Amino acid sequence: MTRPDVLIIGTGMIGLTLGYELLKRGQTVRLLDQSTAGQGATRAAAGMLATDEELPEPLHELAALSRTLYPELVRQLLDETGLGSGYLEQPFCLHRGNQFLTFEQVGQIDSRLVTQALRSAIERRGGVIEEDTSVSQLVRDKQRIIGAETNRGLRTGRQIIVASGRGSEAVLRSIGITIDTCPVKGECLSVRLMTGCLDRTLFNEQVYLVPKADGRIIIGATERSGDESTTVSLDSIRLLVNQAIRLYPPLAEAVFVEAWAGVRPQTGDGLPYLGPVDGIEGLFVATGHHRHGILLAPATATVLADCIMGQKPKVMLGAFSHQRQGEKTK
Which residues of the chain form beta strands (DSSP E)? Predict the structure, then answer.
């Protein structure tokens, strides 16, 4: 591929959804990942499309847009690739403090399946995904972004989006952009019931249980601030299992499937950095979604694609500016 219209750094759920949306709008796209597409925090996600009760108020409009977009996104991916995304709508039961709330139809997806479908759709539309390609620094000419230096050489783009999760902080710092994210490690496990089934998501302040389309139940998640490792401790498994059985006693007879961990970037105010980078033409950021990257991916892709195409974004992005906490460019 010659110089693409858009170079995207990061191929988690945010980066892949951005790539797909931009390709649908006629842009040429190259995506870079230091490891394997769809891994990292995305692969570790339980896939809940959270209710507003779990979100900071400034995210409500963005989340509502995403929930509207999801059914069409998964339908398009199935039509184009033949790959399902594990999309379900089922009851969601929330116990928080003295509140017991039931939402009758709350969506969820399988993060591993949807990223496979997105990758396939991107490649079918002519997008390029380069794995094992780590970015050492961004390159600019005065106030215009040019490209990114990588272990495979310079990669250029007319416009560049930094969407590499926790890694976004170092990439942006290479040209004097400071954002504030903290790594938060989350550990999860999955089990299968040998008899019966769980037909709804259960969520309280200690643990959540998310039944998937393939019969697994995901149990999560620990939150270990400042920990960037992806190991899973036996103590964490014990804690999650005990809390899960208290919430849903039939799990005592369940069979263990696997355990895993992911590291999510959390900002100080709980809001992502989303939109153009002030003072550097052609550079955009989409990171810091923390626990809500899966939920917010379609809306993030839509509003950033609007910006890149010179259109008014469907959600105003002022609350998500990288400068809202005083960050400055050098």
Answer: 6-9, 29-32, 88-96, 99-108, 128-130, 135-141, 144-150, 153-156, 159-162, 181-192, 201-203, 208-211, 216-220, 224-225, 255-267, 273-276, 283-287
